[in-house]
């Protein structure tokens, strides 16, 4: 990966974290019954379109960022990096579909009373379910695998991988127990993405692990017995 691509991946990592924090803080909590969700969005005013735009753009940054991380880590941990990167793409695609749902919901909120029935049908639209499942499952598993891959690669900073895993746990598990998990997960995501960005842009290229090296990677005659 050349320097320009590494810069693109590093910028995308930081941009993803920043946009995620913006939409998390500004996106109206419309996870209520359809009768009130449009009213909640309408009451949010100008912050609602900013939030949904940040949500959508964050997914573009997400896919560029973590595909780049997977490519970066592939020489050191090809299995984990390949599977984690592929799942991250599927998760990002699923979340992008969710972005379209949010945009539709925000458009319907322009006239909550008239569009109440349409909002109710949108909530239970069956073809959305596979995308929502891919969003959750693939994103969680993909990020965990990439976090493990970074840790195993030994690339500095070593803490970036564990922090990424901690973000996943706090965001997708801790959020079920306390609202403070949202703020903590935002800090963890910013830290993980900043560490990964520094790793990709400034760090030495990850080397294959000893078990993954092929005979061609070993200098002939070095450290091997001499035959006469």
Describe the structure.
The radius of gyration is 21 Å and the shape is elongated. It is mainly α and 228 residues long. 71% of the residues lie in helices and 0% in strands. It is built from 8 helices and no strands.
What descriptors fit this protein?
228 residues; mainly alpha; 71% helix; elongated
Write the layout of secondary structure elements.
Layout: H1 3-26, H2 34-44, H3 47-73, H4 78-108, H5 116-123, H6 129-153, H7 160-172, H8 180-202
How would you describe the shape?
elongated
Give the H and E element order. Answer: HHHHHHHH
Strand content: under 5%
Q: What is the percent of helical residues?
A: over 70%
Structural class by secondary-structure content: mainly alpha
Q: How large, in whole angstroms, is the Cα Rg?
A: 21 Å
Question: Uncertain runs with pLDDT below 50, 5 residues or more?
Answer: 213-228
**Largest β-sheet summary:** none
- Tally of contiguous helical segments: 8
> How many individual β-strands?
0
- Give the mean pLDDT: 85
Our measurement of the CA-to-CA distance between the termini, rounded to an integer number of angstroms, reads 43 Å
In brief:
The protein is mainly alpha-helical and 228 residues long.
């Amino acid at each position: 990966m050349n320097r320009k691509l590494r810069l693109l991946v590093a910028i995308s990592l930081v941009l993803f974290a920043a946009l995620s924090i913006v939409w998390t803080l500004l996106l109206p909590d419309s996870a209520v019954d359809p009768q009130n969700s449009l009213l909640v969005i309408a009451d949010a005013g100008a912050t609602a379109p900013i939030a949904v735009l940040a949500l959508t753009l964050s997914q573009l940054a997400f896919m560029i960022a973590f595909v780049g991380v997977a490519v970066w880590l592939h020489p050191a941990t090809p299995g984990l990096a390949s599977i984690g990167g592929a799942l991250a793409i599927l998760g990002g695609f699923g979340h992008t579909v969710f972005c379209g749902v949010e945009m539709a919901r925000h458009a319907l909120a322009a006239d909550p009373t008239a569009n109440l029935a349409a909002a109710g049908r949108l909530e239970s639209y069956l073809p959305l379910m596979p995308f929502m499942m891919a969003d959750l499952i693939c994103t969680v598993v993909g990020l965990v695998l990439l976090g493990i891959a970074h840790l195993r690669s030994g690339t500095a900073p070593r803490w970036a991988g564990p922090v990424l895993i901690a973000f996943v746990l706090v965001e997708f598990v801790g959020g079920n127990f306390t609202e403070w998990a949202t703020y903590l997960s935002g800090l963890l995501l910013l830290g993980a993405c900043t560490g990964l960005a520094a790793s990709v842009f400034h760090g030495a290229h990850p080397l294959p692990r000893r078990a993954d090296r092929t005979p061609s990677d070993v200098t002939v005659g070095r450290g091997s017995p001499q035959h006469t």
